[in-house]
Amino acid sequence: MNAPERPPSVTEPPLPDSPVAFLWRYVVRRPWRFASLFMLIVGAAGCAVAVQYGMKLLVDAMAEGNRATAAVWFPLTLFLTLIVVENVLWRLGGWLGCNTVIASVVDIRIDLFRYLTGHPMRYFNEHFAGSLGNRISALGASAGAIFGGLAWKIIPPVVDFLGAVVLLFTVDWSMAVALIFFVTIVAVLITGFGIRGRAKHQRFAAQSARVGGELVDAVSNVWTIKAFSARDRESERLAEAIGYEARAQRRSWMYLEKARVLHDICLAVMAGGMLIWAISLWLSGDVTAGDVVLVSALTFRILHGSRDLALALVDTSQQIGAIDDTLRIILQPHGLEDPVHHVALAEGEIVFDNISYSYPGNRPVFDGFSLRIEPDQKVGIVGPSGAGKSTLISLIQRLDDVQSGRILIGGQDVRNVSQDSLRGKIAVVPQETALFNRSIRENIRYGRPDASDDEVIAAARAAFCDAFIRELPQGYDTLVGERGVKLSGGQRQRLGIARAFLKNAPILLLDEATSALDSQSEAEIQVALNALVQNRTVIAVAHRLSTLSSFDRIIVLRNGKLMEEGSPQELRSRKGEFESLWRLQSDGFIVE
């Protein structure tokens, strides 16, 4: 059968992959907050420039030799008032900026995490989990640095420059024109220099993310490191990776220092030239002493402000490079997309219709594979490692899409159903139950977040784990540790089964659900599973064939092909591959 035309799909959420467009998205999300913040900063910086003019008026009044209090009262009052207003505006800007920037960074990290979790599982197999997590955190920090730098390091020097130009026109228009010309040249030089260094900053960001991923990977496998006496070996491996990062950081840092040297030379020439020019005009009687003070104060303010501006621009370029590198990795197009107009999943038979699937760069796992599973049928899947058993389980959950053919549930292509809707109808007990570093109660409740405490306890009893939970010091409130390391493998598996009980989904997938249990525990869990599988469509992958003896149907896979199918009794009577596997296990050999 040919696959029907699928409806158009969208990615969720639609995040732009350009750093500037990406950041702008969060500015327009809070337009009034950002506008108010920038207005406060502009007002504060404007007052700071106006303070210099108040000082000029005060010096001129004092230079006239009039010692009457009234002569200096107005410039003194103006000077002090501007200082007070400036500080009030800075503090208001600090309060508003704190709330606005932090809220925006929170949104950025949540949106990136949501987008990241929309990738298929093969994406996570190709990237370090620690590196991806570090990238999201680092991007949030970079975005916060850019927003903060724009507000407190870029806007104030720009306002200083514009204010200085206006005030210099009151002294000598040619000085104002010279300032515009000189600062423009410096800005072009420094900005161009910063842009040329973006590649160095991107290399450092990429190496930093890689080292973060390597470090998390090593820490998460510390048992293996100890078991194989590999501390020195891993230290050398990390030293090599960190060495590459350090070299990339050194190049990025030294490029920044070169920008600082270039800026300091340019601004020293400007400051000295403007001051000499102002003094020469005073000597010729063309300007007042207050004008010289004004030019001097503005020149040095522009000197320091433009240094901050130049460094902020270079730093922003570096942060943009880091953001661009992260967006390039995380905002890759989703391999799985939800349709715009999706339908609700209807319960019914599960059909693999001539599917073909292969992992990137590997041989095909399935090539034209077909299988039909009736509603409420209990189907076991057996075969050697690499036969495609676990891949079949993942494709039912749509953790990845087939390259051709269709997977139908209740007559509906799973690609026409939203992923969350599909997975909401499926309960899974995997071979390795993944637990969060949260309480046992929270981990069981993950199967159904709105479940009551009584329902959680009932699910635990059904999975034969209530007894051991109550023996723990904090009972159901016991934290299980990272990935459940504080519990045994069998205890983790029981919690996974309890979670499936609580979810109560019509489709149940078991992927070696009793593999981590001892014989006594397995017998208890088998009783629980017999209750769990009632009135559900069940697909179970099992190496231990005895666990499938009560199933309606057994599928034998080898190299992605269906070799045999039938009831356990039928397959044993045929003396085929299933019977060979059964005999090997009965004789004491477990064949995977």
What does this structure look like?
This protein is of the alpha/beta class. The protein has two domains: 318 residues, Up-down Bundle (ABC transporter transmembrane region fold); 237 residues, 3-Layer(aba) Sandwich (Rossmann fold), CATH 3.40.50.300. Helices cover 62% and strands 10% of the residues. The chain has 19 helices and twelve strands. The strands form three sheets. The protein has a six-stranded mixed sheet with strand order 8-9-10-5-11-12, sandwiched between helices. A hairpin with a 2-residue loop joins β11 and β12. α7 crosses α10 and α14 packs across α16. The longest helix is centred in the middle third of the chain and has 53 residues. It is elongated, with a radius of gyration of 34 Å. The protein starts with 8 loop residues before the first strand and ends in a 6-residue tail after the last helix.
